[in-house]
Amino acid sequence: xxxxxxxxRIPLLHDEVTLTLHGYVKTVRANATDVSHGGMGLYLLERLxxxxxxxxxxxxxxxxxxxxxxxxxxxxxxxxxxxxxYAAGIEFDRLDVMAQPRLLAFLAQFESATEPxxxxxx
Length: 122
Known about the structure:
Layout: E1 10-21, E2 26-35, E3 39-44, E4 53-61, E5 67-82, E6 85-92, H1 101-110
Antiparallel strand pairs: 1-2, 1-4, 2-3, 3-6, 4-5, 5-6
């Protein structure tokens, strides 16, 4: 089977993210299911349009249990019905060490992990 992803996705345990849609003023909450250098899987309660541009705000905890938010500009690549909502694949424009240092550090730390990894406080 051909693997289409260029980077490995790291499974997450229901981390809540905020999506700000660029086409119109609207904020949507979603659960992140996995993340990689190239994108993120989401579970949403409402359907969003493929190609929609958005900004994702994700909270990442530091060693002192302080929450830091980072934002990433992205696009919706695919959406399909799943359960009582929708699964969606999100492609990041790019990650930058200056703009998303904690997310990049998280990805580097867990690239070889095989079990779901909570990104909130223990």
